[in-house]
Specification:
The chain is built from seven helices and eight strands. By secondary structure, the chain is an alpha/beta fold. The structure holds farnesyl diphosphate.
Length: 237
């Protein structure tokens, strides 16, 4: 199994991760530091999501999974949840006009569809359909996502197909993303997984930074990739 991608087009890195997971954390603290409402942090975070997606596509990373809204985030104050959902909605409307500019990006939403407003679901489906025929970087946006929820959904799907005994390969084939995540990036100083890509993280390399997500730059991504290049991955061997 090829876990590394030799980067031939780009002389910047000798090896690149095939699949990166990014926990977009620190929006609230970023806003607070500036005396702004938390929603201003999420808005700034959405711009960084766009910038980093484009940079990953430029670098020809195969797959990137962004943690946007967890199954636990519904516990936040109602107004904040509403503001984040409105942000996703407005972002997707705006992205429709920007589709040409991001021609090498394929979008997929991962997570539990139940609980998401129908108008937002329609925009999510449209974005997936409109980008599905493209070649390029697969951007998974995790919305109403939890790593445990993902594994349970995979098992239930296998049961519904009549499976009575389940193997690791079965689960690997029925989770939302590819089964391995090579590198997980978490900014904002927190060093935990928070129910993100639990199955895929079995042999992930982790990269943390104190930078808050709205301040995260292409340079930070490059630093993470440079560190990744130097890691000695043994996969238990
Ligand atoms: C975590 O920061 C961030 C969220 C729960 C929301 C993430 C959403 C975005 C970055 C917008 C993404 C937009 C698109 C279009 C995909 P936090 O609020 O937990 O920050 P804190 O830890 O500083 O309070």
């Amino acid at each position: 199994m090829a876990l590394f991608k030799k980067n031939e087009q780009n002389a910047e890195f000798s090896v690149l991760p095939e699949h990166i997971g990014i926990i977009m954390d620190g929006n609230g603290r970023w806003a607070k530091k500036r005396g702004l409402p938390r929603t201003a942090g999420h808005k700034a975070g959405a711009e960084v999501f766009k910038k980093i997606s484009k940079e990953c596509a430029r670098l020809e990373i195969k797959e990137v999974t962004f943690y946007a809204f967890s199954t636990e985030n519904w516990k936040r104050p109602k107004e904040e949840v509403k503001a984040i959902m409105t942000l996703f909605h407005d972002y997707l409307i705006e992205a429709k006009n920007d589709m040409e500019a991001s021609g090498n990006i394929i979008v997929k939403f991962i997570g539990e569809r139940r609980g998401i407003a129908p108008e937002l679901l329609k925009l999510m489906d449209d974005a997936e359909r409109e980008t599905s025929k493209r070649n390029g970087t697969l951007i998974n946006v995790a919305v109403n996502y939890g790593g445990r929820q993902e594994i349970v959904a995979a098992v239930n799907r296998l049961f519904s197909l009549g499976k009575t005994e389940i193997t690791e390969d079965d689960i690997s084939r029925n989770i939302y993303t590819s089964p391995e995540c090579d590198l997980i990036i978490r900014p904002s100083g927190e060093e935990r997984l928070s129910n993100f890509l639990l199955w895929q993280a079995a042999y992930s390399e982790f990269w943390y930074s104190d930078v808050l997500w709205p301040d995260f730059s292409e340079k930070d991504l490059h630093n993470a990739l440079s560190d990744f290049e130097k890691r000695n991955r043994r996969f238990g061997g």
